[in-house]
Amino acid sequence: xxxxxxxxxxxxxxxxxxxxxxxxxxxxxxxxxxxxxxxxxxxxxxxxxxxxxxxxxxxxxxxxxxxxxxxxxxxxxxxxxxxxxxxxxxxxxxxxxxxxxxxxxxxxxxxxxxxxxxxxxxxxxxxxxxxxxxxxxxxxxxxxxxxxxxxxxxxxxxxxxxxxxxxxxxxxxxxxxxxxxxxxxxxxxxxxxxxxxxxxxxxxxxxxxxxxxxxxxxxxxxxxxxxxxxxxxxxxxxxxxxxxxxxxxxxxxxxxxxxxxxxxxxxxxxxxxxxxxxxxxxxx
Length: 284
Known about the structure:
There is one protein chain. With 284 residues, this protein is an alpha/beta fold. Helices cover 42% and strands 22% of the residues. It has a single domain (20-283), classed as Carbamate kinase. The chain has an eight-stranded mixed β-sheet, with helices on both faces. Strands 3-4 form a two-stranded antiparallel ribbon. The protein has a two-stranded antiparallel ribbon with strand order 6-7. The protein starts with a helix and ends with a strand.
């Protein structure tokens, strides 16, 4: 009986959050282990379906860097990176597009199989991500910086409770396709859509003062303190672009951003529907 009471308590705890976010959009950036391992992947997609069923409007943006690297390797192409950006020539952008499109189809298929409605969208074919060629890191080929997001294809879906599943390829003025960093794409779409939250799924518990100590998790962080933590090398490596994406979303008007561990079972539900939450919350 006690177990049943505890389960009921969890539902009651979720109620105010369901009320608060019902009818609102939440953007999830999805990659890493959450994309790679089937059991983790299914948990994430089930969370999305649950959110959809209780009236929240999730938007999913996914990457696929590991799969792109593997497919390039099969073609005898060694991946090169400059400042974390994949050097992308013409043959590489074709592999990037094909790989992300395949991942997208699989995600959409499984969300539909789990009971919600989802439609896959490419940032370029659906005319969502408009980019200029990235030059800050030198000439890295067909890599783009997002300067404009066309929200209409997304609004047409969320209005009818359909989950948009986007992969981050953009177009320039001439219609040329460019690879876009998924974290950047998530931040720009989140701001343009005016979502309630940006949630970035990662392979770690969040931002930790000591990466070796899970008890050192920073559960809440003010945006003004982020640069200091970067300077002190508390935030390093692959966490930097994720944090900067969160900052860009907040500066664009998103109320809160979260970095959470996608490996934790039902991490999205724990973050959105519980008082304590998980991971690191960043706010202004």
